[in-house]
Amino acid sequence: MESFTRPELIDFQGVSMTDTFINDWENIQNFKARPDDILIATYPKAGTTWVSYILDLLYFGKKNPERETLSIYERVPFLEMNFSFMDSGVQLAENLTTSPRLIKTHLPVHFVPKSFWEQKCKVVYVARNAKDLAVSFYHFHRMNKGLPEPGDWSSFLQNYTDGKMLFGSWYDHVNGWWEKKQTCPNIHYMFYEDLAEDVGLEFDKLCSFLSVSPSIEKKKEILEGTRFDKMKNNSMINHSVVPVMDFKISHFMRKGKVGDWKTHFTVAQNEVFDEHYKTKMKDSTLKFRTEI
Ligand code: A3P
Description:
Bound molecules: adenosine-3'-5'-diphosphate
CATH superfamily: P-loop containing nucleotide triphosphate hydrolases
CATH class: Alpha Beta
Shape: globular
């Protein structure tokens, strides 16, 4: 991966994307969802892997030891991802033989293949507050050569504020999905901060949405296995097998905290961000917590 060149952002139908996530567009849009598919949708760094692994253990747990040898990418394919050096997300999803199939996407809601809506698939959306997400995404850009050059923190934050980020503006993403949820009962909208505060409660709500009733023992096992430190040390889950990521720069499972933004935002950056946030969110009923 030494020679891997970082991609540039492209304006794709009004959303900033990179080639990796649009070069298989026809196959993505024509993807045939099945009614029992579960789509895990997020803006990057909102807790996708956490919820993916919770669902993986919920449905497949220890029943299938072979699954333990598969990376999270293979268990929960990333639908729109298409690197030349591995199977595309669509291929990985189509190759799944499980029921349900767990599928991950970072697409803004209006880009989601229509078959997911036609088949009335259950969708779990996870959102995370804009400030912690910016910090997490910044470090992820630093260590992941599959993403555009982040520049320094202050220029990254400016681009993030302006919506010049892969998968577009955080504001458009969280609000777009939130609006869709108001008319679509198949969407369960979760928050990273709620998970961090009381994962057991969020787990119960998730199970109720999915109409599954695991035993107390199984719940305990899942919550234990999906703790930050456990996931960080699990090589099948912590993304250490992904060649474009340089763990010497930063870990995928980095800090796993609410409020880490305070160690990155200067007072001035925070004031400017808050002003901009107020304008962008003035018509939204969506409320985030930046500390717990
Ligand atoms: P940080 O970079 O703030 O540590 P995604 O999976 O959407 O890319 O999100 C990654 C973020 O979720 C990272 O945030 C990661 O540490 C955090 N995360 C993953 N699993 C977690 C867990 N079990 N508990 C808390 N945070 C977790």
